[in-house]
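Sanity check

After download, print the first record. It should look like this:
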Amino acid sequence: MAENLHRRHQIHYLRTLSGVVGMIRNPEGTESVFDIEDGLLYAGAMDSFQERVSGLPGVSELMEARYLAPPLDVEALIQLPEESLGYAVARHIVDHGFDPDYYRKVDVVTDLDWILMRMRQSHDIWHVVTGLGTDRVGEIALKAFELAQTWRPMAAVITCGGLLRYLLKDPEQMGTVLAGIGHGYQLGYRAQPLLAQRWECDWERPLLAWRQTLGLPDQPAMPA
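Expected structure tokens:
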């Protein structure tokens, strides 16, 4: 039994390592991101992540209810008032040509399953409300935001992997990347828990009002 457990840990370690290598080679490859997290599922850091998230104000109620929203109806959301969160999210998806149902699915059985599924489901919403972009630096900055709020192991791996990628391939951009990480982390540290929000129940609420309630800047911007 001990040998089988050791073999499983090796497999998960190799899956994580493969995901990191894939991310460095192709930062736009979302499958590498999911491989990293799936490989980390049995890491001890996941216990700290789950404990941290479970203690965030407002999260336990959603977790106990297993609150998950249906797939985004982009066509309906884009009909909402332009100042609304729903319109902003739909515009974000349309303008970038994203698939709102792109994320790797998780069968929600445990609390950790719910946490991972809800974070994947609301990823684009987090981009919109934080104002952190979807370019490479913006994605790393959002992972720093997630790290500040949730201690998500995958966020730490991607943040470090992003730094390594720029150090090896684009060292002249290191200042920009470090500034983005610092900016994202500070936003996450100061903001209310984004995981505790039922965004889909109040799509018509103005984006500005959401940001003010969450303690985010009215007009978020990455550092120059």
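If your output differs, re-run the checksum step. Summary of this record's structure: The two ends are 54 Å apart (CA to CA).
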